[in-house]
């Protein structure tokens, strides 16, 4: 398995219960996983634990046979080689699109930097706007830049935290198709978190649901859907 | 096991530097507290019996009356300016902060100069109308006089904080109260006062801490308090241990006030806050009411800024040629030098602590932030006692080293500027810290996290992202610290090296030598520099709608 998460537990300082409770997940290389769950189910926390922005209380995380976290190790987020697209994109407002993308390309030569920037910008179809500042872009454009920035250093794992929540509905449908194509083109193993079933189904190879801080797989979500359908009364059209 | 997981996150230069700074700040204060219980002082019994009761009485009276009046004036003005439209309102919004530009000790001797026998009022009465007044009514060198000065020149703390709160946070509550048919007075007492309790208490405690810190006013006005007693036992009686005991007693009073503040604020630390900031829409006052509101603001503004300012200018013209000399230039240079170096150090330290605090959400990271605030609460005289005790100790330890290095002074660093500047850093670190912390809060952690996900470590991220995003708060923190230092009196008086004078110490010396006119030039420079900074801040703050 490319990514191995075992018995992951985590508790926020001011809460009494574990937010993440014995979370297990194994992911193949190149797979796109979507974590589906209601708000507060701890799905964003899983991402923050994976990339090292939070420290789990117990459990192990391995990426490509390298241990990221266990009882004796903790790899700092900047050393993990994980890319992340934040919910609000977090594009640096004081840098242009190109500068934002080059930010993660330290250690590359100037020429290599420029080439890689052009490459990822082409990938997301934004080459013409590389001199713009983030506030001069639309929501969808910002999103694509954020994706390009995360992909530029060729991360082993790409995390996306509610990537469509800031987009309006039309754009959302258009972009999620694009997103899947782009990620598949690069072959990057990805996890993305959402509360929207349609998003999850459109993009993911496999869907995980979260309940009480633990992961359940696709089958259980299907039964869940059936349960819900049974509970919901049919909508009756109101006569005018 | 958990330690191993947490450790890598803490292993960096920021943690180390923060811990060093915290120790530096705590050392003098802890020294005082420990010495209070261990050291014997020959005069302590005498002080306890004959001086201490009087000190406590004066201090309590000053605190109670100043606190009450400053809160009344500050809150009422804040409400007027936020909720109503009347002539010159936009000017008063920042004009009423200007009294802070005049340090109370300068205000104190200026008012005495205006009111005494040779002052402009009595002279005019005598020479124009031939009226001789009873001196009793014009003597302000007493406790009520000190309360008058403190109230007028410290109330802006309450005004500023309360106005900021009312303007942004109170709109929906106040408008609801209006819709429910409440009159203006009822809204003020039933709604405005209760919801702004946190802001009022916060501003009020700043006023009280300033009163406790003051040395200039109470010394000049002959109202013995802890600050003056510490000076007297230390330099008059030469009894450092008694001074330490007095300092510790004063520290206990400060702790009491801080605890009281926490208690009064209760669980609602920031009172009522909403995330939706909506400005309160002011009501236009009718003619008579508008002029009443205007007059109230104008009277306070005149008393708190205009009158003493004009008087200082007038005196400055009388003495300008006499005062303007190379020694005076040196004073200005000294003041600028210590203020710039002090403010720069404060900014750097504050950034380090603020950055450390936001990187980790735990007790260890919150504690340093609280420690910086502690320094700001401790009166200057106490810090002076603590820091010179520590520095003399260090000099004793290093005595052999000095001899080897061929330095003949046995007290090397405790007579150097280094000691003074360290004291400034301890006392005013909170000023820089608050500004920078607020800046970090506004920016949030997202950009830092994004940068770390892109492979930059904490320190690189700091220089390439964080620092650029808090440029504004960084500059304002620097300027605020600069002003505090340039105005500072008690620390500078005690800790300055021999023959080293700044604008504030010289102004104070002239004034206490009954050379009030000569003190004006130095005073006016302090006042003008501070006033300009206040003006700039107000304009910057107003422009930012967020």
TrEMBL record, chain A:
Domain of life: Bacteria
Keyword Cell division in record: no
Keywords tagged on the record: ATP-binding, Cell membrane, Ion transport, Iron, Iron transport, Membrane, Nucleotide-binding, Transport
Keyword field contains Cytoplasm: no
Domain ABC transporter span(s) in chain numbering: 3-237
Matching Gene3D superfamilies: P-loop containing nucleotide triphosphate hydrolases
PROSITE patterns: ABC_TRANSPORTER_1, ABC_TRANSPORTER_2
A GO MF label: ATP binding
InterPro entries: AAA+_ATPase (IPR003593), ABC_SmlMolc_Importer (IPR050093), ABC_transporter-like_ATP-bd (IPR003439), ABC_transporter-like_CS (IPR017871), ABC_transpr_FbpC (IPR015853), P-loop_NTPase (IPR027417)
Xref: SUPFAM superfamilies: P-loop containing nucleoside triphosphate hydrolases
Pfam families named in the record: ABC_tran
Entry protein name: ABC transporter ATP-binding protein
Organism listed in the record: Halobacillus campisalis
């Amino acid at each position: 398995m490319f990514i191995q998460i075992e018995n992951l537990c985590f508790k926020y300082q001011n809460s009494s219960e574990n937010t993440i409770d014995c979370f297990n997940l194994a992911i193949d290389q190149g797979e796109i996983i979507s974590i589906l769950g209601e708000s507060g189910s701890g799905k964003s926390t899983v991402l923050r634990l994976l990339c090292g922005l939070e420290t789990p209380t117990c459990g192990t995380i391995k990426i490509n046979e390298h241990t990221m976290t266990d009882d004796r190790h903790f790899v700092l987020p900047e050393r993990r080689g994980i890319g992340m697209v934040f919910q609000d994109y977090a594009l640096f407002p004081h840098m242009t699109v190109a500068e934002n993308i080059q930010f993660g390309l330290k250690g590359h030569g100037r020429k290599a930097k420029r080439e890689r920037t052009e490459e990822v910008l082409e990938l997301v179809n934004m080459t013409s706007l590389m001199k713009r500042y983030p506030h001069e872009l639309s929501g969808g454009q910002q999103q694509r830049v954020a994706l390009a920035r995360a992909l530029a250093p060729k991360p082993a794992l790409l995390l996306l935290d509610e990537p469509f929540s800031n987009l309006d509905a039309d754009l959302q449908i258009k972009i999620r198709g694009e997103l899947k194509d782009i990620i598949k083109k690069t072959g990057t193993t990805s996890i993305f978190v959402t509360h929207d079933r349609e998003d999850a189904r459109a993009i993911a190879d496999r869907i995980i649901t979260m309940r009480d801080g633990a992961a359940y797989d696709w089958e259980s979500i299907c039964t869940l859907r059936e349960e819900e359908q049974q509970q919901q009364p049919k909508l009756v059209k109101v006569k005018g | 096991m958990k330690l191993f997981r947490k450790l890598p996150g803490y292993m960096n230069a920021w943690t180390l530097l923060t811990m060093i700074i915290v120790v530096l700040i705590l050392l003098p204060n802890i020294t005082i507290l420990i010495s209070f219980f261990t050291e014997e002082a020959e005069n302590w019994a005498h002080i306890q019996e004959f001086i201490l009761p009087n000190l406590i009485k004066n201090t309590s009276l000053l605190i109670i009356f100043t606190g009450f009046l400053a809160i009344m004036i500050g809150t009422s003005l804040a409400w007027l300016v936020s909720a109503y439209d009347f002539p010159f309102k936009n000017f008063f919004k920042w004009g009423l902060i200007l009294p802070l530009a005049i340090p109370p000790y300068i205000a104190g001797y200026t008012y005495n100069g205006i009111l005494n026998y040779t002052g402009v009022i009595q002279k005019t009465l005598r020479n124009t109308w031939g009226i001789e007044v009873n001196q009793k009514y014009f003597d302000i060198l007493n406790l009520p006089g000190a309360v008058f000065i403190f109230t007028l020149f410290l109330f802006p703390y309450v005004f500023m904080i309360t106005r900021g709160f009312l303007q942004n946070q109170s709109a929906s509550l106040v408008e609801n109260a209006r819709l429910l048919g409440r009159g203006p007075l009822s809204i003020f007492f039933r709604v405005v006062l209760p919801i702004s309790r946190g802001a009022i208490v916060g501003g009020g405690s700043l006023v009280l801490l300033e009163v406790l810190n003051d040395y200039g006013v109470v010394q000049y006005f002959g109202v013995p308090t802890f600050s003056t007693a510490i000076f007297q036992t230390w330099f008059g009686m030469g009894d450092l241990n008694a001074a330490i005991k007095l300092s510790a007693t004063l520290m206990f009073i400060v702790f009491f006030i801080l605890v009281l503040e926490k208690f009064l604020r209760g669980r609602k630390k920031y009172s009522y806050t909403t995330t939706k900031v909506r400005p309160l829409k002011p009501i236009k006052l009718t003619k008579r009411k508008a002029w009443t509101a205007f007059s109230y603001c104008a009277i306070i503004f005149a008393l708190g800024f205009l009158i003493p300012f004009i008087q200082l200018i007038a005196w400055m013209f009388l003495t300008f040629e006499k005062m303007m000399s190379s020694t005076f230039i040196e004073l200005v240079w000294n003041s600028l030098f210590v203020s710039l170096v002090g403010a720069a150090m404060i900014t750097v330290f504050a950034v380090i602590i603020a950055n450390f605090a936001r990187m980790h959400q735990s007790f260890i990271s919150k504690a340093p932030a609280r420690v910086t605030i502690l320094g700001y609460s401790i009166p200057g005289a106490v810090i002076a006692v603590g820091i010179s005790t520590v520095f003399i100790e260090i000099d004793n330890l290093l005595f052999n080293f000095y001899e080897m290095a061929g330095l003949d002074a046995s007290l090397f660093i405790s007579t150097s500027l280094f000691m003074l500047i360290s004291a400034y850093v301890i006392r005013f670190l909170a000023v820089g810290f608050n500004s920078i912390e607020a800046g970090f809060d506004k920016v949030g952690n997202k950009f830092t996290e994004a940068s770390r996900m892109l492979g930059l470590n904490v320190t690189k991220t700091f220089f390439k992202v964080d620092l650029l995003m808090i440029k504004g708060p960084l500059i304002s923190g620097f300027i605020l610290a600069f002003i505090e230092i340039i105005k500072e009196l008690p620390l500078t008086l005690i800790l300055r090296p021999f023959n080293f004078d700044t604008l504030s110490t010289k102004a104070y010396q002239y004034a206490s030598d009954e050379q009030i006119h000569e003190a004006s030039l130095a005073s006016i420079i302090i006042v003008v520099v501070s006033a300009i900074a206040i003006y700039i801040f107000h304009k910057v703050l107003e422009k930012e709608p967020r």
